[in-house]
Amino acid sequence: FNVQFKDDKSYPFLAVSIKDEFPRIYITRSQKQKGVKHIGPFAHAWALRSTYEVLLKLFPVRSCTESNFLRAQKSNRQCLLGDIGKCAAPCVGWVTPEEHHEIAKNLIKFLDSNPESVTEKLTDEMLTASAAEQFEKAAKLRDQLQALTKAQESTDAALSEEITADFIAMHEDITHAAFSIFIVRHGRITGSRSWVVDLQEVPEGDSVMDAALPKIYHDFEVPREILINQPITSEAGVIEWLSQKHGSLVEVKVPQRGEKFELLQTVKRNANQALIQFLSKRANDAGVSGRALEEIATALDLAELPLRIECFDISNIQGTSVVASMVVFEDGQSKKSEYRRFSIDDEAGFDDTRAMHHVITRRFKRYLAEKDLDLTELEMSGANRPKFAYPPQLIIVDGGVGQVNAAARALSELGITDIALCGLAKRLEEVWLPEVKTPVMFPRHSEALYLFQRIRDEAHRFAITFHRSKRSKLMLESLLDEIPTLGTTRISALLEHFGSVSAIRKADESQISQIPGIGEKIAKIIVDFLAQQSAPENVNTSTGEIT
Q1: Beta-carbon count within 10 A of 13 CB
Q2: Architecture of domain 292-467 in CATH?
Q3: Model pLDDT, residue 536
Q4: Measured over all CA atoms, what is the biggest interatomic distance in the chain, rounded to whole angstroms?
Q5: pTM for the full model?
Q6: Residue 45: pLDDT band with limits 50, 70, 90
Q7: What percent of the chain is predicted at pLDDT more than 90?
Q8: How many CB atoms lie within 10 A of CB 477?
Q9: Whole-angstrom Cα distance, residue 210 to residue 175?
Q10: What is the DSSP letter of 305?
Q11: Residues 6+ away with beta carbon under 8 Å from 220
Q12: What ranges in 371-446 are assigned the alpha helix state H?
C-alpha cells in the first residue's frame, strides 16, 4: 500500500554523485540514479534546503551542474560559491580530485551520523597544518570544526551513542493506519516522517505492520536494527527480505523497557497525532462531506440530501440516571449550538427502546409546537429562538432494530411521516431502516459510513458526558443524607440557597449558619463532614473524561 502521504507526492533526498571524478551535491526527488549516494528522505523541502546551505559551508563540495562546471574549467574562473567559501572550486584546481573526494566522503560520514570520525580527522588536519605553519588552512579547519560542533549540538538527542536503528510506530482506527518513523544514527535523531495509509490497501491475510515494512524499505536504506510497537506475524519472511536487502542479518524487535521503549512511545504519539490531523482534515473537507451526503441519500432512497441530521443516543447504567443526547450535523459538520440533552425518568427509562421512544416523542412534540411560529417576528421582538423549530431530513438512532422501531413508533404516533429514520448498529456497522428485514451495508471505506460513524460517536460522547455529570451530582447530593441532624427540609434549604453540594463545600461555617434552620452548631457539623469526604469527580464536558 501507499506509504507516502495521501497526496502520493514524492519526498526530497540529498544526493552526492560519489562516483564522479569531482562529486557533486544536489537535491533530488528521484532515488533511481546509479553511482549516487542518497540521504533521506526529508519530510520538508524547506528544511532540507536550509541544511544544504549549512553543509556547503562545512563541506564545500561542488554543487553546480555539469555544464557550469565545464564552463568554469575552460575559463579558469571559479563561480561565486568558490569566492564565498561554499565550494572548494576543483574546476580551477584549488583542490585536487583526491582532496575533493575526501571532502565528499566526510560529508557522507557526517550525514550518516558518524560525526566523531569527521571531527577527529579535521582536528588532526588542523593540528598538522598549524605545526607546518599553514595558519590560513588551520584557521579554515578550525572554523569548520566549530560549525560542525554546533550542528551536532542542535541534533543531539538524549540517547546512547550505540543506538543506530529505525523506530517505527503505528496507530490505527477502523479504516486507516498512521505510521511514524524516527531515524536514529549513533544516538542522534537524524530524521522523522509520518504518513497515513488506507487499510483497504493491506493485502488480505497480512498484518498491517507485515505489509508496511517491505513497502517502507523498498526504496529506503535498511538499518541493522528496526524497532516497532507491534509484532510482525510472518517474522521469518519479513526479516529474510530485510536482511537480504541490508546485506546482513537485520533485527526486528518490540522493545518492552528502557530508553528504546521510551522513544518508541514518543514515535507512537506522533503516529496518533498524524491520524488525528488526517481525520480532522478529512472531516472538514466540504467535498468529502458532500460526497458522503450524496451516498447516504442514494443508499437510503431519500428524496433530498440530508443537510440536517440529528442523532440520538441513550446512556444508562443498569437503568439508573438514564439520559439521552441529541447531536446535530448540518452539511456534514457538527453544529454544537444545536446539541440537546434529555433526562429520562425511571418509568420511561427501564430499557433503551422505551427510553428512545420517550426522547423522540419529546423532541418532536416540541417541533410540532414550534414549527408554525413566525421566527422573524420572534427575533425582532427579542424573544429566544425556539430550540426545536427546525426538522431534520434524517434521524439516526444509535442501535439496531429495536431502537429504530421504537423511534418509528414515536414518529407515527405524532403523525410525522416526512422525516427519514435509520439506526446504526455498532457490531457490524449495519444501517437499519424501519420495517425492513435486512440492513443497508455501506462499503467499509465509504465516505457515508465514515460520516455515520462520526455522528454516532459524537452522540455517544455527548450522552456519556451528561450521564457522568448527572451521576456525579446525584452521588454528591446523597452525601447530604448521610450528615447527622440533616433532614429533608434542611437539605432542601441548603440546595435551594447554594445550588449544589460543590458550592456548599466552598462555603464557610458563617455562610452556612445563615440558612434558616441550620445555625452555628449544625453548620460546623456540615463543614467537618464534607471536609472528611473525598473531593467530587471533575467531568470534562467536552471529552466526557473524569479526572
Answers
A1: 22
A2: 2-Layer Sandwich (3.30)
A3: 45
A4: 107
A5: 0.47
A6: low
A7: 16
A8: 15
A9: 17
A10: -
A11: 41
A12: 375-381, 401-413
